[in-house]
Amino acid sequence: MPAVSRAVQWVFIIASLVYALLYARFEWGGAAAYVLALLPAALAWVVSGTWLAAAFMFLLPMYFIIGQWTVSDRHYQPFIWLDHAMPLWPAWIAIYASLYMCAFILPLVVVRGRELLRQSLKAYLFVMLVSYVGFWFYPTVAPLTEKTTVNGFAEWSLQLFYDIDQPYGCFPSLHVAYAFVGALACYRMHRAVGTAASLWAVLIGLSTVYTKQHFVVDAIAGGILGMTAYWLFLRGRPREPVADIDRRVAPRRAMYVVMAYVATIGAFWGGYMLGLGPPSP
């Protein structure tokens, strides 16, 4: 049975790479975004070695594929008055871009225990599949899809994300749902870390609106979806004991992630100073 399970995992992984390469012919930016998203999924597979992690890798590219399949459909923009009250604020890209750390790297570093890892992966897969249904049956396009005027580091970074990501698949916000799942998974390990990460997730929700990558309704729906996944898969877990040392060192591990993100911002700043990335339109 283990050999069969491992074979199934490799089928998932190879299939995900094949159709990610097929997608690459449409737009380099989307393929680059997929490669970035693949890294934490690959780490999750290395850490847990389960078919759940392999399935996560297999399903990741569907975000881009659905966007391409629905590109000619009618797209909706669920504006409410709050969307007009919250203008484009490029500096929020610093929070928006931190999803990678908050939703993926932080739980990979903090969460320990086979059961809690397994339940966390189930929560990620749940929000992914529910979001994909939303993307398919209620195709949306982001509030702002045009180029911004690059007058500084914030605008440069924001335009870089506009170039990499596709403007489709907004409702519900996977960005926000992933952030809450990652934060609440950490909460099951260490309450203080999880509480801080949950506040981080709230800020990420605000950033999706201020960067005009999502509407307010998208962000709220994403938050509800992430918390629903917590109630279904993570509340009351783990039932098996987790080593005390892992719980005690969780804050230190979380600080390493914060430091890594600060270093990442520094690297982006270096790219900006060197004139790399998107040119001014």
How would you characterize the overall build of this protein?
The protein is mainly alpha-helical and 281 residues long. The chain folds into two domains: 1-69; 75-273, Vanadium-containing Chloroperoxidase, domain 1. The protein contains 14 helices and no strands. Helix 7 packs antiparallel against helix 14 and helix 11 (191-210) runs antiparallel to helix 12. The longest helix has 24 residues, at 114-137. The mean pLDDT is 84.
Task: Set down the secondary structure blueprint.
Blueprint: H1 2-24, H2 28-48, H3 51-59, H4 62-69, H5 81-85, H6 93-96, H7 99-110, H8 114-137, H9 153-164, H10 174-189, H11 191-210, H12 216-234, H13 244-248, H14 250-273
Question: Can you count the helices?
Answer: 14
Global mean pLDDT = 84
CATH architecture of the largest domain: Up-down Bundle
* Rg over CA atoms: 18 Å
End-to-end CA span: 56 Å
Low-confidence stretches: none
Amount of beta strand: under 5%
Q: List the helices and strands in order.
A: HHHHHHHHHHHHHH
What's the quick description here?
The chain is mainly alpha-helical. The protein is 72% helix and 0% strand. The chain folds into two domains: 1-69; 75-273, Vanadium-containing Chloroperoxidase, domain 1.
